[in-house]
Amino acid sequence: MTINEQSRITLHFELALEDGQIIDSNFGANAAQFTYGDGSLLPEFEAVLVGMSVGDEASFTMTPEKAFGARNPSNVQTMARSQFGMDIEEGMVVSFADSAKNELPGVIKSIGDSQVEVDFNHPLAGQTLTYRVKIVAVEEA
Hints:
Layout: E1 7-17, E2 22-25, E3 32-35, H1 43-47, E4 57-62, E5 76-80, E6 93-97, E7 103-111, E8 115-119, E9 129-140
Antiparallel strand pairs: 1-2, 1-3, 1-9, 4-9, 5-8, 6-7, 7-8
């Protein structure tokens, strides 16, 4: 059986940066299982799996536009340091609420005497990634 838009897929995967640094991998651990289109993977990561079968292995280069998007300079915000009621450090991920009360993570980029720069871009935004997979099982969803 080959993967299609109605498949339940079990796979090993690896996500790496252009320099080869591995960001996430489940090779050597339990395989991940998901149903095509359930939101577990980005649509572009799912789309490249269509037509693959059990035992197939492949690597795909994912440009920023197909992965986590380009970095958007307007997603870096300057906030008053007084808005932070906790100790903060550069690189720390802080949870904020947007206007609809949804959780929005931001990375503390820099800390000044009165202002803090927070980056709301996805940490992998702007990165070209290598996505490697090995298909373990394919079933009808």
